[in-house]
Amino acid sequence: QLCLVHKLGLRIFQMPVTVGHSCEAPQVQLRVSRRTWRKRLPGLPLRVAVTFVLLLLCPARSFAGCRVSRASLQVQRYAEQPAVDSLRLVPLKLASAVMGLLKPVFALQAPVQAGSGYDKWQVRKELEAEIKSAPVLIYTYELSPFSQEAKALLDAMGADYKEVSLGSEWFLASPDAAAKRAELGSLYGRTSLPHIFIGGRSVGGLMDGSPGLAPLQESGELLESLKKAGAMPDDGLFGFFLYSGDHLDEKD
């Protein structure tokens, strides 16, 4: 485009010249023909205007090209599946194994903490609405390292997810949050958090479940599951612009 403008500019101001020798001096002199000036002057303002318009358009087109290129790079980055840092997850895997031994205890404790004063069917209706409200839904504790690691993994994937916090920890949960935790245990057999749903299907927690977020990542199935659920940007040219990528937080 810049070359085109440059050539057009030369075309505007290019004038035929005549070469002659002066009797008074031996050097060569260049003289522009008056007839040529008169012939080209009427069209000169129009050509100058066209040149300036092209000069104004070129930066805009270049910027648009850069913006589209950046969007394509963003989509490509989201399409690539990050590798799992196995060493960093070792402590969490050990802790998950210990918590697994306490699973029967938590299964009995959750209904006791929730009590019997809540409407079971109303809570289940709320859970169903929350699970269907986003491609990926994650129930979390704010102080849980498992919850933080699960969100970090989803962020690294570039997935769009909705977080529903059930409090700082299980022993600090409000009555409503305790009721949701108890019904999650009744419906899905899991009271520990995080509890992750992809496309409305429970995949468990970070390290365990059906089969768990980290196992899905290690097997290479997580990216495809997120794409099928609609939690990833489109692979097309404008997919990054059409994709919101906003993480919605709901604090109970």
Number of helices: 11
Topology order in helix (H) and strand (E) letters: HEEHHHHHEHEHEEHHHE
Proportion of residues in helical segments: 55-70%
Largest sheet: 5 strands, mixed
Radius of gyration from the CA trace? 34 Å
Global mean pLDDT: 75
Strand content: 5-15%
Number of strands: 7
| Unreliable stretches | 8-13, 15-30, 59-79, 236-252
N- to C-terminal distance:
57 Å
Q: Identify the overall geometry.
A: elongated
Which features would summarize this protein structure in a list?
alpha/beta; 11 helices; 5-stranded mixed beta sheet; two-stranded antiparallel ribbon
Explain what this protein looks like in three dimensions.
The protein is an alpha/beta fold and about 250 residues long. It has eleven helices and seven strands. The strands form two sheets. Strands 6-5-3-4-7 form a five-stranded mixed β-sheet, sandwiched between helices. Strands 1-2 form a two-stranded antiparallel sheet. Strand 1 and strand 2 (about 30) form a beta hairpin. Helix 1 packs antiparallel against helix 3 (about 45-80), helix 5 crosses helix 8 (about 175-190) and helix 6 (about 120-130) packs across helix 8 (about 175-190). It is elongated and about 85 Å long. Residues about 10-15, about 15-30, about 60-80 and about 235-250 have low confidence and may be disordered.
